[in-house]
Amino acid sequence: MADPYRIVEVKPEWVVDREDMGTKTKFWYRGPDSEVEWLFKYSRPNTGEHWAEKIAAEVASVLGVRHAKVELAQFEGERGSATESFARGGRALYHGNEVLEWTVGDYDSKKKFHQSQHTLANIFEGMDRVFVRPEAASRAKRTLAEYAVLDALIGNTDRHHENWGLLWRREGDGLRGIVFVAPSFDHATSLGRELLDDRRDRFLAENRVGSYAEKGRGAIYWSENERRGPSPLELVRRAVRTYPDLFRPAVLKIVEIDASVFSQIVERIPPDWMTFSAREFALKLLYYNYEQLKEMVW
Q1: Cβ pair 233, 39 in contact under 8 A
Q2: What value does the mean pLDDT take over residues 34-47?
Q3: pTM, whole model, 2 decimals?
Q4: Looking at the structure, do residues 161 and 131 belong to the same domain, yes or no?
Q5: What are the tens digits of pLDDT across the range 173-202?
Q6: Residues 101 and 226 in one domain
Q7: Residue 207's CB: how many other CB atoms inside 10 A?
Q8: 282 touches 242 (CB < 8 A)
Q9: Comparing C-alpha atoms, which of 238, 232, 193 is closest to residue 213?
Q10: Domain span including residue 16
């Protein structure tokens, strides 16, 4: 068995600044031997947000999907996760809501919940408008398709319009040249992290992990007329048929991996950071989603 993932012990003197965006308490810090800032996020009580972030990042690595680096971390005895900053080197992050406000009609960038304008079609239209060269727009859309497929695999239902973005390079008071789609980030709402063990055990005993996956409601909508977004799996099912050139390559990345790697990733979470039920549920969910995604390209 491989060694457990390391746990970063964040010191109070490392704290740089508080982060206000989102609903969870978090702060930026920089260790004494690092030139890069990291975002520490507390895991909310009775959730596995910390291990969900770490597992998601490791799964993304296996798939070759660009993502923010994540470590398990602890601050003053409280557990959480640490995410490496990618908005550095003169680059500024603009979140999806800002991008869509600039590019898609009357997009309401301040609407936090049930934002049905946040559709895959609008996101792709935004890329076509932002990127001048068609090949650059296609590359950006392929990257976002990979993120959607990653979400389907890990069951991430929180890809809302502030959980993706574009990086620009700063030049004085203006912006010069889009660098790339920002790495995938903020995967805490994945792998059944919100469930308590007794509910996980019921899903497992009744063989209903697949039902849990299919009933999840994602934050990317298929149509502006929908009251709720489809599950991450269902979004990809529709997208593979509608945008095959973008989504089939992303799904094929999953077909190429050996599913046994999921167990290797999950088992490296330290024993006292993730319960047996949480491990078993997370693995069953990954295996179910993996098989469903494979069927989309067979």
Answers
A1: no
A2: 93
A3: 0.94
A4: yes
A5: 554 565 689 999 999 999 999 999 999 999
A6: yes
A7: 9
A8: no
A9: 232
A10: 7-84
